[in-house]
């Protein structure tokens, strides 16, 4: 095979087309080397998903806290919460904390 026979093949003509070469270089550059490359977009999308789950978690916590605040508007419920959560007591009152041993012998 000589150089003239290789140049006449259609594959060689397509592969040496200047527009195709420039397009290939451009696509490779945009996919891997550019600041806004595909790899960066994958990392950003992963980070966005993590942040969205974080937001959902905190929205759920906010709704739970709003329900707790609504309950604590009642004075009896407020006393119960303070006694159970913070071990508060009234004057002249004794508190006994009973802990059960959960380990079976």
Task: Summarize the topology.
Layout: H1 3-7, H2 10-15, H3 18-33, H4 38-71, H5 75-86
How would you describe this structure to a colleague?
The structure is a single chain. 70% of the residues lie in helices and 0% in strands. The mean pLDDT is 86. The protein has helices at 3-7, 10-15, 18-33, 38-71, 75-86. The protein is rod-shaped. It has 105 residues and is mainly alpha-helical.
Main attributes of the structure:
single chain; 105 residues; mainly alpha; 0% strand
- How helix-rich are the residues, as a percent range? 55-70%
Strand/helix succession: HHHHH
C-alpha Rg (nearest Å):
35 Å
User: What is the number of E strands?
Assistant: 0
Average pLDDT level: 86
Give the overall silhouette: rod-shaped
Helix count, per DSSP? Answer: 5
Structural class: mainly alpha
Query: Beta fraction of the residues?
Result: under 5%
The description of the largest β-sheet is:
none
- State the low-pLDDT regions, or none: none
Beginning-to-end CA distance, first to last residue: 88 Å
Question: Outline of this structure?
Answer:
With 105 residues, this protein is mainly α. It is built from 5 helices and no strands.
């Amino acid at each position: 095979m000589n150089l003239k026979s290789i140049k006449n093949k259609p594959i060689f003509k397509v592969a040496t087309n200047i527009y195709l070469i420039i397009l290939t270089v451009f696509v490779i550059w945009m996919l891997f080397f550019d600041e806004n490359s595909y790899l960066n977009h994958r990392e950003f999308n992963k980070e966005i998903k993590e942040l969205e789950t974080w937001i959902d978690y905190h929205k759920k916590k906010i709704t739970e806290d709003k329900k707790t605040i609504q309950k604590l508007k009642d004075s009896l419920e407020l006393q119960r919460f303070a006694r159970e959560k913070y071990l508060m007591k009234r004057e002249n009152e004794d508190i006994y904390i009973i802990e059960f041993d959960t380990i079976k012998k």
